[in-house]
Amino acid sequence: MRVTGTEWVVGPDGRAVYLLGVEMAQRYRHAVGSSSPFYEGLERGVLRSTRCRECGASWFPPRRFCEAHLTETDWYDLPGTGTVTAATRVHSPPPFGGIDPPYILASIRLDGVTGGITHRVMGAETPEHGAAVVVKFIDEAPAHPLLAFAFTVEGVTP
Ligand SMILES: [Zn+2]
Q: Could you give the percent of the chain with pLDDT greater than 70?
């Protein structure tokens, strides 16, 4: 905690009120629980998903249980490729920081799974609907674990 300043202001009843400015930082440790294999995959440079061993249904983002069979799902690695279904250029930073605007955000249908992700596409050009993309893992320690990867349009150097 740090005092940033003081001042006198007039309160709603017309009386002077002394204000003490305080800056506080809070740290949290958030357990991801059954999603830990996904984050382990990010550290190994692979996107991971889950599949029902009863019906073969798969999900991204991963799910722990199949809603049809109420059975625990199995983890597997995705090939890391996909197809852009929509994309836009973003001109404000994400709430957790780590990316300087402008940047490209795209909805991507991932290969090898039912589902996809809205995530960053490297490069200056907004990809067209149907563009093939491939995941690229970033070596630097990211501001958020989900920033450990982005996508590039196949055949285009960012
Ligand atoms: Zn199932």
A: 98
CA of 64 to the centre of ligand 1 (A): 11
Are 90 and 103 in contact, with CB atoms under 8 Å apart? yes
User: What CA–CA distance (Å, rounded) separates 134 from 110?
Assistant: 9
pLDDT, tens only, 50-107: 999 999 999 999 999 999 999 999 999 999 999 999 999 999 988 778 889 999 999 9
CA of 97 to the centre of ligand 1 (A): 37
Ligand 1: centre distance to CA 112 (Å): 16
- Domain presence at residue 14: no
Quote the ligand 1 centre to 50 CA distance (angstroms).
11
Judge whether 85 and 118 are in contact, CB under 8 Å.
no
Nearest CA among 125, 126, 133 for reference residue 152: 133
Range of the domain at 103: 33-153
Q: Is residue 23 part of a domain?
A: no
Round to whole Å and give the CA distance between 12 and 19. 14
Alpha helix (H) residue ranges in the chain:
36-44
Rg of the chain (C-alpha set): 22
Q: How many domains does the chain have?
A: 1
- Gap from CA of 57 to ligand 1 centroid (Å): 6
